[in-house]
Design brief:
With about 140 residues, this protein is α+β, with helices and mostly antiparallel strands. The chain has 2 domains: about 1-40; about 45-135, Immunoglobulin-like. The chain is about 20% helix and about 45% strand.
Length: about 140
């Protein structure tokens, strides 16, 4: 055995080596986790029109389609999973509306909003996590 090797006959050196291996493993796992988390939270523009802009806050891969129907003034969201509830928060972060949906299609009329910034919180069927989008009404 070389100098500094993890010799089972030297318990102190053996424990120190085991601790260092565990520490390196933990740091590697944390680095990969944070890298993945930051990489997946790149905002994506779902809707961008003269009247409305909707941007994801995180990865919202459950949207099949999102559009603004100017003829009806509706924000239209089609999803791959059923939405249980949509929450509408004002610019101060206060809950203004909570709309039960129970469908994979939701249409929200622009008349519910004044000009400004809002957040839409989508809760999927059978989940408790809220998935947010930023909404700007122009």
């Amino acid at each position: 055995m070389g100098v500094g090797s993890a010799d089972p006959r030297n318990p102190v050196l053996y424990v120190q080596t085991a601790i260092m291996k565990n520490l390196i493993t933990i740091l590697t796992v944390l680095t990969i986790t944070f890298s993945t988390a930051f990489a997946s939270t790149t905002p994506e523009v779902l809707i961008n029109s003269a009247d409305v802009e909707v941007v994801t806050v995180g990865s919202l891969d459950f949207f099949a389609n999102a559009a603004f129907d100017a003829s009806s003034d509706n924000l239209v969201f089609d999803t791959t999973k059923d939405i249980s509830v949509v929450q509408i928060y004002n610019g101060a972060g206060e809950l203004e509306f909570q709309l039960p949906v129970m469908s994979n299609n939701v249409q929200i009329n622009k008349n519910l909003f004044d000009q400004g910034n809002y957040k839409l919180g989508f809760i999927l069927e059978g989940q408790s996590q809220v998935h947010f989008t930023d909404v700007t009404i122009r």
